[in-house]
Amino acid sequence: TVVQGRHTITFGVEFWPSRYNYYQNNTPTGEFTFTDNMTSQNPTTAVGGLAFAAFLLGDMNSGGAGIGNRTAAQVIYRAYYAQDDFKLNRKLTLNLGLRYDQEGPFSERFNRQSTFLTDAPSPLAALTGLPLKGALVLVDTPAWPSRNPYKPNKNQWAPRFGFGYEIDAKTAVRGGYGIYFLP
Questions:
Q1: Which of 4, 83, 158, 174 has its CA 20 to 30 A from that of 115?
Q2: For residue 42, pLDDT beyond 80
Q3: Residue 46's pLDDT band (cuts 50, 70, 90)
């Protein structure tokens, strides 16, 4: 904060990295498959039988448990601001300010992410002969050289304007306007 005559100028920086380290297991209770072998008329041929009936009987054909991923993700948030509280006269004060917010994109320490490119030729295009567009690619590869799965918005300018007017010793009118971005 700097006070210069009728101006009170404040400025600052906000910076915080958000790190998310978590264990991601897509099949925490395991996977089980059931076939119609147990409920078929003859176990050596698939005549009759129903896999759902085997499920109801509890006759599992196979199963497994997945190994989860240990994810190390982060988002870095930055913001810069400046504001001038200008006392025009004894009764009127103006507040003029500007803030710039920049939330960095989500990234993962070991680049285990993918992104969808809408203009890239589809891998299915060669198989079908159709001009299909869209491909899923890994980050930090020649197809997508960035570690982040999307491009951040770098146009988050947030102006502020406010005023305070003293009508008499017991009454004041205040108002303001601002644009805000949620991280």
A1: 158
A2: no
A3: low
Dist CA 123 CA 1 (whole Å): 57
Per-residue pLDDT at 181:
87
Of 59, 72, 69, give the one whose Cα is nearest residue 27.
69
Tokens of 183: 């991280």
Can you tell me the distance from the alpha carbon of 42 to that of 113, in angstroms, rounded to the nearest whole number?
Answer: 47
115 forms bridges with which residues in the sheet?
137
pTM here? 0.64
CA-to-CA distance for 27 and 33, rounded, in angstroms?
Answer: 13
CA distances from 11 to 6, 77, 98, 102, 146 (A): 17, 17, 9, 16, 32
Q: Say how far apart CA 54 and CA 45 lie, in whole Å.
A: 16
CA–CA gap between residue 163 and residue 173 (Å, rounded): 8
DSSP assignment of 11-76 equals: EEEEEEEEEEEEEE-S-TT-EEE--STTTBSSTTS--B--HHHHHHHT--SEEE-PPPEEEEEEEE
Whether the per-residue pLDDT at 166 is higher than 90: the answer is yes
Residue matched to tokens 């869209």: 134
